TrEMBL record:
InterPro entries cross-referenced by the UniProt entry: Coproporphyrinogen-III_oxidase, Elp3/MiaA/NifB-like_rSAM, HemW-like, rSAM, rSAM_sf
Cross-referenced PANTHER family: COPROPORPHYRINIGEN III OXIDASE (PTHR13932), RADICAL S-ADENOSYL METHIONINE DOMAIN-CONTAINING PROTEIN 1, MITOCHONDRIAL (PTHR13932:SF5)
PROSITE patterns reported in the protein's UniProt record: RADICAL_SAM (PS51918)
Protein family according to the UniProt entry: Belongs to the anaerobic coproporphyrinogen-III oxidase family. HemW subfamily.
Name of the protein this chain belongs to: Radical S-adenosyl methionine domain-containing protein 1, mitochondrial
Chain's role: May be a heme chaperone, appears to bind heme. Homologous bacterial proteins do not have oxygen-independent coproporphyrinogen-III oxidase activity. Binds 1 [4Fe-4S] cluster. The cluster is coordinated with 3 cysteines and an exchangeable S-adenosyl-L-methionine.
Source superkingdom: Eukaryota
Pfam families, per database record: Radical_SAM (PF04055)
Residue ranges of every copy of the Radical SAM core domain listed in the record: 58-310
Length: 487
């Protein structure tokens, strides 16, 4: 899924209820952070190469990841609010790779504009490190002919460089590719596939407005496997209209049976302006209640973990060694490029998005070429915002918040304040705590450490949300940190 910044800080635009509230962009003056300001400023001015993992510096490093938005779909799904271009089911872009595929002017003109944007983008450093991950999101990128995908990859390689072993992911929908197209994409360097299954029930797929059916799902899985794709993911959506626990368990069971190396599980969010918004009210039948949605999440966590998948991020599960490297860029708050309609970038500590309307995006690219825009220009870093970003993104992951690094970056007093506000949730089991060696710290020990800032900084290593109960309270728990950092 492509990135957008409809709230701050940025998150992936996935259909999930796990969205944090907006927070202010005030300059740091609060007493909780003030004691560490001088250290923060000094650290931020040091050579990043000396300590590239520092929380104060990692977002300043040159991007090694790029998100590419290919907005084409056969039609708009009923839950989708992404910027897309609906081609229609009769479009020349089909499952096969034919000469006519490149003749659709809508696709050709867009890809040419996309490549112009890449070429006109200023490098964030000299020399610029080569890209380590590329993610083609949409839309339905598998509708784009391989010849044009090749053009995009060639442009990326020429402009930014591309590692020989780069992770190159592509979102692909059942019914939009055959074996010939799949093999051609693999030859171009695509080595990770994200298959948009969403559900294994015909009635649910139709209710969502999906362009594929169950038959196409099984055909797509067979193509992926027969072409030798080792690293592939399945996307599923819970809390759909009329979805029952039995249906959800069946989808999870079938997903496990086809043995993907990665599974992404998203909870439906009824977005403004979508068809679902006109049809349904969140929490009311035929949509599930909040309690029912929570149960869906618990079922997924239990079934997937029992099947050997590591729950490494709120919505993401994987077999050992198959985490999505590109998405880890976001969770680690590292910088990244974004290209294409509505996409967002995070470069030099600055987050910015492209227009969501095609006409406006075309004007944006022209202005970029004419030197009227400088989106890569650095700006003052609000360290309060940075602290919020680190807490929010870290708590989405199973690894959790690195307390030692956080304290070194933002000061021991702020760290202690955050630990104090989370104390009751460590006691209730919604959060867990460990030292740097992974030893679990009991709630009684955690309470004792709260009375001694020095011991807290020395002993406590990581603070994380428990699975699944803590993850289910992520909005509330992350909001508590917002209140401490940006009251």
């Amino acid at each position: 899924m492509f990135l957008k910044s409809t709230f701050s800080p940025i998150f992936t635009a996935i259909p999930t209820r796990i969205k944090p509230p907006k927070h202010s962009r005030a300059v740091i003056t609060d007493a909780a952070i003030q004691p560490s300001l001088q250290t923060v400023r000094q650290n931020a001015s040091t050579d990043t190469a000396a300590n590239p993992s520092s929380l104060l510096l990692v977002h300043k490093l040159p991007p090694t990841s790029a998100y590419i938005h290919l907005p084409f779909c056969r039609k708009r799904c009923h839950y989708c609010d992404f910027p897309i271009i609906a081609l229609g089911s009769s479009s020349s872009s089909s499952t096969t790779t034919t000469n006519s595929d490149c003749d659709d002017p809508r696709i050709l003109n867009y890809v040419e504009t996309l490549c112009r944007e890449m070429k006109a983008t200023k490098l964030s450093s000299d020399p610029n490190p080569p890209l380590e991950t590329v993610f083609f999101g949409g839309g339905t990128p598998s509708l784009v002919p391989p010849k044009l995908v090749s053009l995009v990859l060639d442009t990326l390689s020429s402009k930014f460089g591309l590692c020989a072993n780069a992770e190159i992911s592509m979102e692909m929908d059942p019914g939009t590719f055959d074996g010939v197209k799949m093999k051609r994409l693999l030859e171009l360097g695509v080595n990770r596939v994200s298959l948009g299954v969403q559900a294994f029930q015909e009635e649910l797929l139709k209710a969502c407005g999906r362009a594929h059916g169950v038959k196409e799902i099984h055909e797509a899985v067979e193509i992926v496997k027969s072409c030798g794709v080792e690293n592939w993911s399945v996307d599923l959506i819970s809390s759909l209209p009329h979805q029952t626990p039995d249906m959800w368990e069946e989808s999870l069971k079938l997903a496990i049976q086809i043995q993907p190396t990665h599974v992404s599980v998203y909870d439906l969010q009824v977005e403004q302006g979508t068809k679902f918004e006109t049809l349904y009210t969140p929490g009311e039948f035929p949509l599930p209640s909040e309690n029912q949605s929570a149960e869906f999440y618990k079922i997924a966590s239990r079934m997937l973990r029992d099947a050997g998948y590591d729950h490494y991020e709120i919505s993401s599960y994987c077999k050992k060694g198959y985490q999505c490297k590109h998405n880890l860029t976001y969770w680690k708050n590292k910088s990244f490029y974004g290209f294409g309609l509505g996409s967002a970038s995070f470069v030099g500590g600055v987050r910015f998005s492209r227009p969501r309307r095609l006409k406006d995006y075309m004007c944006y690219v022209q202005n970029l070429e004419d030197g009227l825009l400088d989106c890569s220009e650095d700006s003052f870093t609000d360290y309060k915002d940075l602290a919020v970003d680190v807490v929010m993104l870290s708590l989405r992951t199973a690894r959790g918040l690195d307390l030692k690094s956080f304290g070194e970056a933002f000061g021991g007093s702020l760290l202690l304040s955050i630990c104090e506000v989370y104390g009751p949730y460590v006691e209730s089991g919604h959060m867990t705590c460990s030292d740097e060696k992974g030893r679990n710290i009991t709630s009684d020990e955690f309470s004792f450490l709260l009375s001694d800032e020095h011991k807290m900084n020395k002993v406590v290593g990581f603070l994380r949300l428990s699975d699944p109960d803590g993850f289910l309270l992520s909005n509330e728990l992350i909001s508590l940190a917002f209140g401490v950092i940006s009251p």
